[in-house]
Amino acid sequence: MKNYTVKQYQESDYDGWNTFVSQAKNATFLFHRDFMEYHKDRFEDFSLLIFEGEKLIAILPANRAGAIVYSHQGLTYGGLVYKETLKLASVIQVFKAVLFYLNENKITKMQLKTLPSIYHNKPAEEANYALFLTEAQLIRRDTLSVIDLSKPYQFSKIRKRCIQKGINNGLIIKEENNFESFWNQVLIPNLEVRHQAEPVHTLAEIQLLKKHFDKNIRQFNVYFNNEIVAGTTIFESENVAHCQYISKFEKQENLGSLDFLYNHLIKNIFAQKRFFDFGISNENQGKILNNGLSYWKESFGANTVVHDFYEVETAHFYKLENVLK
């Protein structure tokens, strides 16, 4: 059996880490160190690199809180990242090496949020099998509303009426590099009024991320009589256009702004993507579904992809010792 070495990420690993992310079959720009570290003051980084000899063969974006390692609390998704050359049997043994390393470092549990399948460049559920073998517990399941743009899809009649309303109201869509008007005039006021909440990213943070990932983070605003009324922030990866923020704050009655905007994004801007991901409609760790929000997304032709979260005891590394024959 091959021997694997696990070590914790250091600043000197910056280039090697990012190069590996660019070549992996199950990674997006969120795993780039420049994205992970914009909020490094909030998390104790515990990212891992796994080597076979001198060769880097897998990474785990992660942070630590007490005796638990998370992959990663500051990212939408996470998990073990590897190239297509790493076969199933090797992934199982790499997973064992990670659990053993964590256990040796007095980490009792690892919480792992998987990377939804739509973000895979090629099928990459080897680690899911390792989670099963180690008797990991499913602790949360969110539901993504996703349009497969390679297949026929259809907007509902009510969506078509609202899109027409936007056309009749003379709405204008602009892609912009500055996030200030959307954050301060739409997103923050809307979240405060409706949910007594704030955006995950501050204005300064999203502007910083835009500088690092100009082609991946895109802002689209909707204007009515030269006044911003709605907008969305899109995180664009190789296969997926993901809606990171969706918000409207209209002083007038419903203008059809979001329907008008998403019709344009789906049919024009991102028509050549494989998937259009509206994101989740869940609350309370996945146990509550916001049915109105979910219905709105589904009425564009979206269907459900689940996003799973697991917890595994690191002492269960021994359960992977005799699974290969």
Describe this structure in words.
With 325 residues, this protein is an alpha+beta fold. It contains 9 helices and 17 strands. An 11-stranded mixed β-sheet has the order 2-5-6-8-17-9-14-13-12-11-10. Helix 3 packs across helix 4 (126-133). The mean pLDDT is 96.
Strand content: 25-35%
Helix-strand makeup class: alpha+beta
Low-confidence segments:
none
Shape type: elongated
Strand line-up across the major sheet: 2-5-6-8-17-9-14-13-12-11-10
Order of helices and strands: EHHEEEEEEHEHEHEHHEEEHEEEHE
- By DSSP (H or I, 4+ residues per run), the number of helices equals 9
Mean pLDDT: 96
Q: Kindly state the percentage of residues in helix.
A: 25-40%
| Total number of beta strands | 17
Biggest sheet, open or closed, and with what strands and sense?
11 strands, mixed
First-last Cα distance? 12 Å
Instruction: Evaluate the radius of gyration.
Output: 21 Å
Write the layout of secondary structure elements.
Layout: E1 5-8, H1 14-23, H2 33-36, E2 44-45, E3 48-52, E4 55-60, E5 63-65, E6 68-71, E7 81-82, H3 88-104, E8 109-113, H4 126-133, E9 137-148, H5 157-168, E10 172-176, H6 180-195, H7 203-212, E11 217-224, E12 227-236, E13 240-248, H8 257-269, E14 275-280, E15 282-283, E16 288-289, H9 291-298, E17 303-313
Parallel strand pairs: 6-8, 13-14
Antiparallel strand pairs: 1-3, 2-5, 3-4, 4-7, 5-6, 8-17, 9-14, 9-17, 10-11, 11-12, 12-13, 15-16
